[in-house]
Amino acid sequence: MDVAVIGGGSWGTALAIALSAKENYRIVLWIRSYVTYRSIILKRCNEIYLPEIRIPSSVMPIMDPEEAVRGKRLVILAVPSDFMRRTIRDIRPHLDPVTSVVCASKSLEPETHLRLSEVLEDELPTDLKRRTAIITGPGHAEELAQFIPAALSISSVHAAAAKSVQELLVTDNFRLEYEPDLIGAELGGAVSNVAALACGIIEGSALGDGLRGNVLAALYRETVSLGRALGAETAAFAGRSGLADFFSNCYSMYSRHRSLGKKLGEGRTLSEIRSRNNMVFEGISTLRSIFTLSRQAGLDSPLIDCFFRILFEGESPLKIFNIIAPKNFKK
User: Fold this and answer.
1) What's the distance, CA 138 to chain centroid?
2) Residue 28: strand pairing partners
């Protein structure tokens, strides 16, 4: 079977490597950067994002979007949210009517605050809309690329499409559980990056594990409230794309958002960190989005508000404790 993974970052590269374990699967990895393309061709590694991981010869890098997707049974989108709409437009003319299109990015579209399934709905023709799904849940590229077991969620408003892709992607070390609540699955996965960012800020500010646990619980409650306001069910947030993703992202040594938050908590600025790091931090734009969505829904979200002010208005992380445990508590 022919599969295209769109996006040569760490997650897209890891997905391509993981799927190379499938017999008789021909994997194409579409890459925008010539530097990355050349490093895979010459050295069989992604020197920028996963330099220590060998990429199997069965994964073929390609820079032409038409060549990447034409005739493919399955196309997996693993690009940052702010490039998602443009990328879909680039490949849309070349997609076959029977192609399944899966989004594997965890975020919300920065400008519109739409879920990425809604972006797919906006941009794809009618025949392809019925063949879309979303992958989310607890997973790290560094583990997936080494064939360490990964259990994630797949969701869609079209259950048959999700279950078809679920069967196509299963390997000995990669499994997908069907989650019927698409809104909850997407929101939980996206906010897990914000949760990791928040936990990293607490860690870097030396505010203690106790406060980190309290913040994680409170942020989870605010996420559930926002999800319900957007049409999700509470139960979805207790699964792989909710609590499991929160815990994995907040405590893993591979979590880029935890690492980012830790540096911010230690006093470094966001612009300084970005200037020295090639990674994309989706949690930054997601924080803006959930701040805006919570305001629009009229929700009380003191922790989301607090971390928004810390990240974008320079407020001290020391304010977190007073949000979690105010002196004038309600009796």
Assistant:
1) 9
2) 4, 60
Contact call for residues 138 and 244 (beta carbons, < 8 A): yes
Contact yes or no for 226/164 (Cβ under 8 A): no
Which are the contacts of 267, defined by CB distance < 8 A and separation ≥ 6? none
pLDDT at 204 exceeding the cut of 90: yes
CA distances from residue 162 to 254, 300, 312 in whole angstroms, order as listed: 28, 34, 37
Burial class (CB in 10 A: 0-12, 13-18, 19+), 80: middle
CATH architecture, domain defined by 190-324? Orthogonal Bundle (1.10)
Angle at CA of residue 149, ends 157 and 251, nearest 5°: 85
* Helix segments in the chain, DSSP class H: 10-19, 34-43, 65-69, 81-91, 116-123, 126-129, 141-144, 159-169, 182-204, 209-230, 245-251, 256-265, 270-275, 282-296, 302-313, 319-324
* 2-178 under CATH 3.10.20.90, yes or no: no
The span from the CA of 14 to the CA of 278, in Å, is 17
Determine the 3-state secondary structure of 197 from DSSP. Answer: helix
pTM above 0.85, yes or no: yes
Is the sign of the CA dihedral 11, 173, 196, 302 positive or negative? positive
Give the pLDDT band (50/70/90) at residue 227. very high
